């Protein structure tokens, strides 16, 4: 990690909002997986939720990932018009390329856990997250702002599930594949690439744009916590 990255905007924000960041990356749902105390009905709810998001998770997550795909594509489009570094597009494309495989995996997991994706009713927290993604796709939203969101969304997943793979974890064998998918070193390297780009953009952003990006970062953390709450059996 180079000195610029260590002292970049992202790290300053993480330190400034550490309580909220920790709430998103060390949520009780994630800790229950790591400690081996997870209620498997909660995991089935998580899978069901993932269907809504497409690149995000299984069940409700599957739903989320389906919304994450056009969002990621919109970031790619903004990069083609606004980025000062052509390599940004290559990084974004590498993430987009994995989404088809991720959606297929969600479907396979849903079948394994007997989760009927065709009957999925989108949870309110998932609806809120998807609407948030849609708002970021508007042409007026700055590149640095949407890239901050892209980095934050991917990184929360990577840091959460990599925690379930650390030495001393008691992650159930049934969930290791899911944790390895998002907690892998390869996905971690992708998130580091996103972080470098986000830092570069934010260092050049004017003050008002920087404020918008920070608010967006905090909103992602809030929505992530709400999503984990839903998976953990939180408010309906």
From TrEMBL:
<keyword id="KW-0784">Thiamine biosynthesis</keyword>
<keyword id="KW-0378">Hydrolase</keyword>
<dbReference type="InterPro" id="IPR050967">
    <property type="entry name" value="Thiamine_Salvage_TenA"/>
</dbReference>
<comment type="similarity">
    <text>Belongs to the thiaminase-2 family.</text>
</comment>
<dbReference type="InterPro" id="IPR004305">
    <property type="entry name" value="Thiaminase-2/PQQC"/>
</dbReference>
<comment type="pathway">
    <text>Cofactor biosynthesis; thiamine diphosphate biosynthesis.</text>
</comment>
<dbReference type="InterPro" id="IPR016084">
    <property type="entry name" value="Haem_Oase-like_multi-hlx"/>
</dbReference>
<feature type="domain" description="Thiaminase-2/PQQC">
    <location>
        <begin position="20"/>
        <end position="231"/>
    </location>
</feature>
<dbReference type="GO" id="GO:0009228">
    <property type="term" value="P:thiamine biosynthetic process"/>
</dbReference>
<keyword id="KW-1015">Disulfide bond</keyword>
<dbReference type="GO" id="GO:0050334">
    <property type="term" value="F:thiaminase activity"/>
</dbReference>
<dbReference type="Pfam" id="PF03070">
    <property type="entry name" value="TENA_THI-4"/>
</dbReference>
<dbReference type="GO" id="GO:0005829">
    <property type="term" value="C:cytosol"/>
</dbReference>
<protein>
    <recommendedName>
        <fullName>aminopyrimidine aminohydrolase</fullName>
        <ecNumber>3.5.99.2</ecNumber>
    </recommendedName>
</protein>
